[in-house]
Input
Amino acid sequence: MFENLFADAGTIARHHNGPLLDERHRYLLHGAAVGATLHTQRNRARALLWIAKALPTRAYGQVDVVQLRQLIAAHQPPVSHQTAANLLNIARPWLKFIGWWHEPEKPVAFVEALDRFVGWMRDERGLTPCTVEQWRYRTANFLRWCQETDRDLASLKPEDIDAYFVTYGAQRWSRISAGHIARMLRVFFKHAASTGACSTSLAASILCHRRYRLETLPYALGWPDVRQLIDTAAGGTEVDVRDRAILLLLAIYGLRRGEVAALRLEDIDCKKGQIRVWRLKRRQPQIYPLVSSVGQALTEYIDTVRPLVAYAQVFIRAHSPRVPISAPGIYNVVNRRLRALGVQAAHLGPHALRHACASKLLADGLTLKEIGDHLGHRSAASTSIYAKVDLAGLRQVGEFDLGDLQ
Output
């Protein structure tokens, strides 16, 4: 490995003879396997040798962030702030990789009640992993607040829940977010009461504000904005070629960000002209005809610039580590480019393209049922909001002649 990174024989020997050779070598091999660049690998090798020499044998097997920072700060002569940050950023993932990193876990309040709730959501309700994780996170926040304010779950009262919304949530949540959290807590308290963890009256005491199904407009981008956004990825770099394929999938098929991130190489069949998408909400695959522009963008990315990695997912990070791009990464692709364009919209992420797709289909004359099928909606109610932006239909209603009834 070191012979591939350095040309000088003395440098190669120094890396071979340094402490923790096997641990350093395994991590560098892992970096090469996920597509790390030569520059990155050289930087890592130097930093790992530095850390390995400075790390006392008594710390082998368990290192935490305080120890690591003290180790770097105590070096003589002192290292610069930039070098210290570089050493910390390289050492931490290395120590995690070899199993030596110790990171104290955040204390979880009322952990038994939380674990039972998570198990019930996952095993009995069959909620998606994304929903389970979101509800677990929000419930854990509430339980941690209870512990920090000396409130016990078994003796909790309705006024304690009111205090949570007033003191904790007032500066953090919008009206809609507060409603979501109230409904989530109501479900949690129903479950907790069924296990005897809290009073049976708590769930009924949580009153959510009334929210009308169609009280807001969908935050769709105008189609000219969508075209302009796609044009920003017209270059020939790896990032541009990848991002263009991602943007076309979001805009033409109205996919969710998680569906794009989960797309696999075997899901694309250019010979049959088909693309297979696993619909997250329906929990089943959906077959689409492969639009020529999307097919060309995907083929260009896969055949010309996609890194040679062992992952089955289509889209790979453009920087080390070369692993599949995540759903938040898909969000960043869209958000970064929309902000650079200066587009003004309520939301600047992939869902804005999904809404733009729906609005475009409606303007082109498709029915709400057809649009819902295209977007992978489970019910017509999810699609009904787009009827509010059917301006042509609204004008026809406005021009209706009431005749003698006027």
Q: What stands out?
A: The chain has a mean pLDDT of 82.
